[in-house]
Amino acid sequence: MDFQFIFSLVVLLFSVVIHEISHGYAALALGDHTAEYEGRLTLNPVKHIDMVGTIILPVISIRDLIKMKKAAGRDVDKLDIEELKKIRNLKRRNDL
After folding, report:
1. Which residues, other chains included, contact 45 with Cβ-Cβ below 8 Å and sequence gap of 6+?
2. Bigger pLDDT: 23 or 88?
3. Does the residue 83 lie in any domain?
4. How confident is the model at residue 70 (pLDDT cuts 50, 70, 90)?
5. Is the pLDDT score of 32 beyond 70?
6. How far apart are CA 32 and CA 37, in angstroms?
7. Domain for residue 82, yes or no?
């Protein structure tokens, strides 16, 4: 693994933790002490791990992204696009 990828993961992890702490403090300010009781008002990333949201969902998402990369590209007929633009412009003129 190259340095940039590892650095990106560390920054992502830190950002997610700060984001979740912010949710906790916002809830606390509004009177909800759940995050405080569960010990989630900490920089410890382990306290913020959720099996579904942190592990399963990203794994499924990455798998689907890999599948999408393997999809074949499709040709685009620019004449069709030009025809659609002409039709849309005609409709706009008729609406005036």
Report:
1. 13, 16, 17
2. 23
3. no
4. low
5. yes
6. 10
7. no
Instruction: Count CB neighbours of 49 within 10 A.
Output: 11
Tokens at 80, concatenated: 């069709």
What's the confidence (pLDDT) of residue 71? Answer: 52
Per-residue burial over 3-32, b = 16 or more CB atoms within 10 Å of its CB, e = otherwise = eeeeeeeeeeeeeebeebbeebeebeeeee
Contact 35, 24 (CB under 8 A): yes
Q: Is 82 a catalytic residue?
A: no
**What confidence tier does 74 reach under pLDDT thresholds 50, 70, 90?**
low
Task: Check 20, 36, 38, 83 and give the catalytic one.
Answer: 20
Count how many domains the chain has.
Answer: 1
Residue 54 lies in a domain: yes
Residue 46 CB-density burial (10 A; 0-12 exposed, 13-18 middle, 19+ buried): exposed
